[in-house]
Amino acid sequence: MDAQRRDRISRLRWLYIDGYAGSGxxxxxxxxxxxxxSPLIALNTNPPFHEYHFIDADAEKAAxxxxxxxxxxxxxxxxxxxxxxxLSKVFPRAxxxxxxxxxxxxxxxxxxxxxxxxxxxxxxxxxxxxxxFMIMDVNRNxxxxxxxxxxxxxxxxxxxxxxxxxxxxxxxxxVTNLFQEDVPIKVSNERFAEAFRxxxxxxxxxxxxxxxxxxxxxxxxxxxxxxxxxxxxxxMDIVNDIFNQYxxxxxxxxxxxxxxxxRMQHGTLSVAAPRSAQGANTxxxxxxxxxxxEFRRILLNRVSTSGSSLRSWKNRCTxxxxxxxx
Length: 326
Ligand SMILES: C[S@@+](CC[C@H](N)C(=O)[O-])C[C@H]1O[C@@H](n2cnc3c(N)ncnc32)[C@H](O)[C@@H]1O
Known about the structure:
With 326 residues, this protein is an alpha/beta fold. It has one domain (3-133, 204-320): Rossmann fold (3-Layer(aba) Sandwich), CATH 3.40.50. It contains 13 helices and eleven strands. It starts with a helix and ends in a 6-residue tail after the last helix. The relative contact order is 0.12. Mean pLDDT is 82; it is low at 264-296 and 302-326. The site of S-adenosylmethionine has 19 residues, from strand 4 and helix 4.
């Protein structure tokens, strides 16, 4: 390794940013108990990040998180709207030229994230994001089958999230009916999610955005799509690996449910687990019942502490492929 590169690597600083941090814990509906939320998982990461930036609009949650984190000088907690704080106070700290690199989690309950935040992360070239795109909120309020039922304030929120009103073109096909009238027909979740992925690439300037992970309810409805967006392939490889393992577990779970509900009546006993799920650890329905909370945990644990860990992420970034962020 030449001296210049060694010097550059030793100067790299890693930031963890959580725009919708919560209080540090949340109640797992599946387990009916308090579980660690994304900030505490990130804080317990080894190797640690150099700085942690947590934002929550709810002042009480921000204060509770401060308590949970303790008096650490590497932890910065903000109470307010992350759409404003990320742009004014946090993203500027992830200065590419100063060898700062950031992993940013955007985990809202609804669609109140704004496009400016996503675009700023893409433009910074130093920030990778995980973002939850709350398709259930979109479907219920903004992108209705019957456009007359759209909630106006939610349609406006959708425009702020998408960056402009072209989500209407992406979300509806204009189809000519028997009376020669053009009627809007809503596209599938998958098509809409793919249109958003294309925006992350072509508008926000992220070079690598794998297909998002659909997170489902027990009844198989998609609550949100989890996107990862990065400038480098190495980060994407790791996330794809994690996504694929999760997909395998979802398939295995579906297969287990079908089997136990007797839907595989014919030859039930001889029906093999889907090939893609073989070899995955056995999971029970309760493991994945609360898909979103569980996945956040799996994802952050995996990204940060084990297996395809942050360490191997950093190693890949710093040694094998030059670095994922340079
Ligand atoms: C889904 S929860 C976050 C859960 C957290 N990531 C975890 O794993 O425990 C969303 C959080 O975002 C906060 N929130 C909602 N709107 C916000 C905004 N505009 N800016 C910052 N925080 C916001 C809510 O108070 C809530 O605590």
